[in-house]
Write a structure and sequence with these properties.
This protein has 296 residues and is an alpha/beta fold. It has eleven helices and 13 strands. Strands 3-2-1-4-9 form a five-stranded mixed β-sheet. The chain has a two-stranded antiparallel ribbon with strand order 5-13. Bound molecules: manganese (II) ion. The site of manganese (II) ion has 5 residues, from loops. Manganese (II) ion binds next to loops.
Length: 296
């Protein structure tokens, strides 16, 4: 049984993202926090490569994943699978990289918190929608009653599921509920007798967290999630061991970079795919992709 792990998921198409992520974990954590990979369609060569990676923590074979909806479903079971491997588990999307150590997330998970980034910071929510309709909060409507009647009318800050850290023992109910709701998701089966609303895995996690009244530690939406803000990000410093010091959109050190654009950063041509201003965001991903762990 391991103490702390990262868990992620990749198919052949996400492999460059996976490699960059594993390299970034190695740069900030060495071999101390292994990366466990849910394999949803990697090639044999890709499996061979990650098996030799210094952060490799194991492979969880999953069924092949062909649609976005299947990916959401499989992701929602990540903590169920991981609970046989470690107690403190940090899910991270394979279209993300660490740009710093994230010890505070692991430490808070050890205290029993479900650790997630806010979708946006409160003042930023107003900035992206001057009408004020987007506040970064959700008030659960009647349609969320399937999660529990007490949820209706309740309000919480929305959070993102690109990085989620928790204790699978302390949060066993959430681990189970998130996996369970995927089976009856409206996105998967509209005729379900258990119609759990939610566009994807993230909304299901929000609903389950709220329904179960879990204690959440919110990380800053600025340094931990850049989902709706593509930058700008700048490399302030680079060290010989591969560490970057990345300045994020609020001038603070960025902890995690995530790429949610329709085309991923490893797809070409980049400049046609992304909205400015990103600063050096794509250079940062490429830095981690190209870092060599051979002989380390
Ligand atoms: Mn993602």
């Amino acid at each position: 049984m391991l103490d702390r792990i990262f868990v992620t998921m990749s198919d052949a198409g996400y492999f460059l993202g996976l490699r960059a992520l594993m390299n970034s974990v190695y740069i900030y954590y060495g071999r101390s926090i292994p990366v466990v990979v849910m394999d949803v369609g990697l090639t044999k060569d890709q499996v061979d490569e990650i098996t030799k990676h210094p952060t490799f923590g194991g492979i969880i074979p999953c069924k092949l994943c062909e649609t976005r909806e299947q990916a959401w479903q499989i992701k929602q079971s990540c903590f169920v699978f991981s609970s046989e491997i470690a107690r403190i588990v940090c899910w991270i999307d394979s279209d993300s990289v660490l740009t710093d150590r994230i010890d505070e997330a692991f430490e808070a998970a050890e205290q029993g918190y479900v650790v997630v980034p806010r979708w946006v910071e409160k003042d930023e929510a107003l900035l992206i929608d001057p009408s004020g309709a987007t506040t970064g909060e959700i008030v659960f409507s009647e349609k969320w009653a399937q999660y529990g009647k007490s949820l209706v009318g309740k309000k919480i800050d929305w959070f993102v599921s690109s990085i989620v850290c928790l204790d699978v023992s302390a949060s066993w109910d959430l681990v189970a509920a998130w996996a369970f709701t995927s089976k009856f998701a409206l996105y998967a089966r509209a005729d379900s007798p258990l119609p759990f609303v939610g566009l994807g895995d993230e909304a299901h996690l929000v609903g389950c967290v709220a329904a179960l009244g879990k204690e959440v530690l919110y990380l800053s939406g600025a340094e931990w999630a850049d989902a709706h803000f593509n930058g700008p990000f700048f490399i302030n410093k680079k060290t010989s061991d591969g560490k970057l010091f990345v300045q994020g959109r609020r001038g603070k050190q960025q902890k995690v970079l995530h790429d949610i654009a329709g085309f991923k950063w490893w797809q070409r041509p980049m400049n046609e795919c992304f909205r400015p201003p990103v600063g050096q965001k794509w250079e940062i991903f490429e830095h981690f992709l190209n870092f060599s762990t051979t002989g380390r």
